[in-house]
User: What shape does this take?
Amino acid sequence: KAKEQGRNNYQFYTPLMSAQSALLLKLENALHRALERRELSLYYQPQIKISTGEVTAMEALLRWEVPEVGFISPIKLFSQGQKTDVILQISQWILQTACEQNLAWQELGLPSIPISINLSNREFEQQNLVENVARVLQKTGLDPQWLELEITETILRKNLKSARQVFQDFYNLGVRLALDDFGSGFSSIGYFKLFPFRTVKIHQSFIRDLRGASQEMALISALLTLGKGFNLRVVAEGVETSSQLELLKSLQCEEVQGYVYTRPLKSAEATQFLTKQLSLTFGQNQ
Ligand code: C2E
Ligand code: MG
Ligand code: MG
Ligand code: MG
Assistant: This one.
């Protein structure tokens, strides 16, 4: 069969290649195509200070839209794509695009805020990660303080040995570090002491089940106290309803991210959101 298909297709049909690596090769090709054909885009979701409605940061979230197929979940993309090298090219594109976007907002005269991007496991294990980030910052001209890097506890736990040095280098570079999805894994409080985080994001599973006098309330309350003690910005993720928002307010939670304010937005819509929010909060202060 392979012979009939001609020489170029030979590698797809060799019996030595397992079905799994064939799938991986397919994914790798698809990802290369995605980059070339601009199927990738970044969406942006604001983090908001409840008391004023101010946007305190924007999180960049990858969207991959395949023609005739639709959107492919970034979780899937990053978990399966880890084994391919093209994932690093995609991460590079994300970093660069997010920095350029933040700079574009600053050039429009919007208040400076950090843009946060998620680091994948593969990216975190890259030897020259910090140098690479430094190079992109220099190339784009974005001040390091306006870049925040989100790392999940899972990635941190996998790389505990190397993480100390990586964090120190990032800290010296002047970028912000955020602990993402806190509460989804082992949730070691020791991480706050060991690593120079500026932000901790409470995993959305706690918010989903939020009710008065629940265990989730106690947990979030404890986390908020802890966050204050360590001088961290605490952001509740996945806030969908106004009753969740009210409960969070009652716990003195200051910042949230979630559908209750907006879903992740395309670049132009995110710009509009920032502009509108600015005029609203400006009006409030008059
Ligand atoms: P994450 O970093 O924890 O991002 C938050 C996720 O929650 C996003 O899903 C966002 O769309 C979703 N979300 C926001 N508000 C709400 C809400 O009110 N309710 C619910 N149910 N969900 C909400 P998304 O964009 O599908 O991303 C899923 C995960 O994929 C991210 O979780 C992150 O781990 C990963 N990811 C997404 N974009 C990137 C990226 O550019 N790079 C890397 N390395 N990972 C990414
Ligand atoms: Mg995140
Ligand atoms: Mg998260
Ligand atoms: Mg997540």
Remarks:
- The first strand starts at residue 40 and ends at 49.
- The chain is about 50% helix and 20% strand.
- Residues 1-6 have pLDDT under 50 and may be disordered.
- Residues 45, 60-62, 73-75, 78, 94, 117-120, 150, 180-181, 204, 237-240, 257-259, 264 surround C2E (ligand 1) (CB under 6 Å).
